[in-house]
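Propose amino acids for all 353 sites.
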């Protein structure tokens, strides 16, 4: 397993005899350079969205099992040494973590170019300005519906008006890039996607529509009843707001296929993990709040970093372990459409997408 990567960091090779890349860059065996880390600060969340968390909630780790501040900073130093270009703070809900601003400031001091955060937006009314001052330059805010009753049902108790206020606060704080994330749900929002586009356009915000994925019991149940393809979503939007014009791809747009409307500054994206697989361009790994480095959102392969951190590993030793683990064990692609069993134990709220 990848947990032995620290011992093998200087000697591992592939079956074909290819050596692990030299220190300084992070690559997998499929020619993909890994420059993007999604860091989950907590598996706790102040929402329990239907597609993210089972109604009963998810199992929580003891506080002692969570990474400490100095351990997270050591991980970030190690990834920075490996050429990290994009760091995203996720959860759970990262805004409830008491050390969030410290980590944003630390990452800015490391001069990591793109500092992002994914949030439900509920606490942005008081945190948007401090985040902007700390150096956050990109934020994704979940917004699946503009109907208050539907929002409360999907989030199991969330207040839509508080989230909309948070979006306005993020705009007022001057965070450079603000995107709305919409999970496509047939019975929840398939009929109201144009309304969400018009909301984004009126505020000069980007918006992205994401196909639901079979992650954990909640995700599998949601997909079985709610799956709505990006192709169907695009057709629904175009029928109401007009023809979408493709936007030339850029290095940092990620897996989204981007469009715009004539005369509009906003970009409309579609993320298609099921209907149009994009694993060939994957450049990311994920770290859980308890220190497990996860190589693929849809598979369990990973590397436990907490024992290394608490065993006194240096930046160089940690970097070597990460390099070996990613090279050896990052899979070529997810298997959502082939083997759900591989993703049935993975909770979206623990990995942050």
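Proposal:
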């Amino acid at each position: 397993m990848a947990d032995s990567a620290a011992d093998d960091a200087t000697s591992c090779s592939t079956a074909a005899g290819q050596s692990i890349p030299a220190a300084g860059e992070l690559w997998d065996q499929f020619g993909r350079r890994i420059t993007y880390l999604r860091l989950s600060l907590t598996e706790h969340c102040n929402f329990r969205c239907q597609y993210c968390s089972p109604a009963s909630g998810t199992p929580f780790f003891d506080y002692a099992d969570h990474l400490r501040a100095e351990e997270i900073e050591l991980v970030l130093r190690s990834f920075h040494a490996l050429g990290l270009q994009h760091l995203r703070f996720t959860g759970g809900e990262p805004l409830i973590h008491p050390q969030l601003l410290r980590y944003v400031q630390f990452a800015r001091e490391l001069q990591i170019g793109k500092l992002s955060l994914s949030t439900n937006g509920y606490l942005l009314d008081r945190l948007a300005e401090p985040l902007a001052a700390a150096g956050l330059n990109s934020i994704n805010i979940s917004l699946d519906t503009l109907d208050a009753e539907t929002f409360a049902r999907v989030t199991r108790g969330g207040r839509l008006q508080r989230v909309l206020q948070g979006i306005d606060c993020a705009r007022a704080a001057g965070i450079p890039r603000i995107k709305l994330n919409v999970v496509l749900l047939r019975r929840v929002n398939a009929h109201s996607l144009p309304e969400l586009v018009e909301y984004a356009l009126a505020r000069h915000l980007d918006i992205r529509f994401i196909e639901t994925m079979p992650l954990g019991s909640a995700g599998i149940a949601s997909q079985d009843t709610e799956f709505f393809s990006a192709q169907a979503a695009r057709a629904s939007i175009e029928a109401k707001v007009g023809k979408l014009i493709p936007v030339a791809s850029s290095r940092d747009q990620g897996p989204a296929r981007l469009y715009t409307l004539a005369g509009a500054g906003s970009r409309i994206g579609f993320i298609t993990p099921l209907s149009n697989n994009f694993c060939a361009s994957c450049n990311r790994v994920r770290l859980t709040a308890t220190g497990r480095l996860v190589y693929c959102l849809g598979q369990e392969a990973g590397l436990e970093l907490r024992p290394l951190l608490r065993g006194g590993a240096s930046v160089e030793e940690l970097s070597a372990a990460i390099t070996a683990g990613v090279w050896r064990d990052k899979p070529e692609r997810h298997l959502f459409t082939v083997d759900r069993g591989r993703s049935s134990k993975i909770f979206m709220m623990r990995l942050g997408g």
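The domain at 34-351 is CATH 3.20.20.70 (TIM Barrel). The radius of gyration is 20 Å.
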